Amino acid sequence: MAGRRTNLALLIAMPLAIGTGVAAFALGSGWNRWVTVAHGVLGLALLGLVPTKSTIARRGLRHRLGVGTGVSIALGVTVVVAVAAGVIHALGARDLGPVTFMQIHVGAAIATVPLLGWHGIARPVWPRRTDLSRRSLLGAGTLAAGGLAGWLAVEGAGQALGLAGADRRFTGSHERGSGEPSAMPITQWFNDTVPRISADEWQLTLRPAPDRMEVIDYETLAEPGERLATVLDCTGGWWSEQEWGGIRLDRLLAEATGNSLLVTSATGYQRRFPLGDADRLFLATEVGGEPLSAGHGFPARLVAPGRRGF
Question: Is the separation of the CB atoms in 218 and 156 below 8 Å?
Fold first, then answer.
């Protein structure tokens, strides 16, 4: 029974932890704080299942070593790695060689998805009416309380020891290079390389309606325009506040029709936004009073206040 309840708790808590992690990447407003807290509590609560799950795995090893047992062990390892990397990031450490602890955290979490799916198929567990017993509810409450206590301990340690993690933004990101564009990290979408684009050959193409197309060259777009001081909060675990120069998208798409707008980069990266948000989206051609560098998006980049990753 203990093994069945442990597996059931794992199959409930894991999707919730992954779901809140995905939501934390999607939200850039103050609501993110509560999602991030929930994600941390759920992640640390999973550690409370490790001792029992380890006992189940060892019992399986004594009887027979099969694919299912190996998957269970791999699942336990990836969960521990994901939680550990998340805690280390929260305390203030940023990089481990060429990768960040946030990347390790996310990579390990992604690896748990197929392992959890296999585990659910190989050892299916279905809820029973008896799972709503006082004992089960008490166990779930204890697990949640343990996760909350762990989260408070991590946050308290960061504050007490004056670690860099104590000054994280509400999204959990660390500050990097605010007011110093050259110190702001360079990021690309997965395996994209930094494009080297000639301003003379580049142009911005606008399609405000299905039967209309407008083209703007770089010289025209880069004329002195508006200034916007805002935060770029990357899902890689860092944020940076810069002063951007450029133009709002609603001014470029004043006569646009439809319900949404699709922004496509020179490398083919695409994101869709509600057309009503065009007045909050900024097409920047400079940062800190200077033209964008190649790594920071030259000749133009989208800046979307309140959204993660742009």
Answer: no
- Work out whether the CA dihedral 16, 42, 126, 106 comes out positive or negative: positive
| Residue 260: partners with Cβ closer than 8 Å, 6 or more residues away | 272, 273, 274, 275
Q: What are the CA-CA distances from residue 261 to residues 218, 264, 302 (Å)?
A: 21, 10, 13
Token code pair at residue 122: 């190989």
Task: Give the Cα-Cα-Cα angle 225, 231, 235 (nearest 5 degrees).
Answer: 130
Q: Which amino acid is at 99?
A: V
Phi, psi at 289, each rounded to 5°? 80, 5
Alpha carbon distance 87, 238 (integer Å) = 15
Q: What is the pLDDT of residues 231-290, one digit of tens each?
A: 999 888 899 999 999 999 999 998 888 899 999 998 888 999 999 999 999 999 999 999
Specify whether the CB–CB gap between 100 and 236 falls below 8 A.
Answer: yes
The full set of domains in the chain, from first to last, is 2-172 (no CATH), 181-303 (3.90.420.10)
Mode of pairing for the β-strands spanning 270-274 and 260-264? antiparallel
- CA dist 66 and 56 (Å) reads 14
Distance CA(239)–CA(270), nearest Å, equals: 22
Q: Residue 143 in 3-state DSSP?
A: helix
Q: Which tokens go with 118? A: 């296999």
Token representation of residue 170: 């509400």
Helix extents (H) in 163-301: 218-221, 249-252
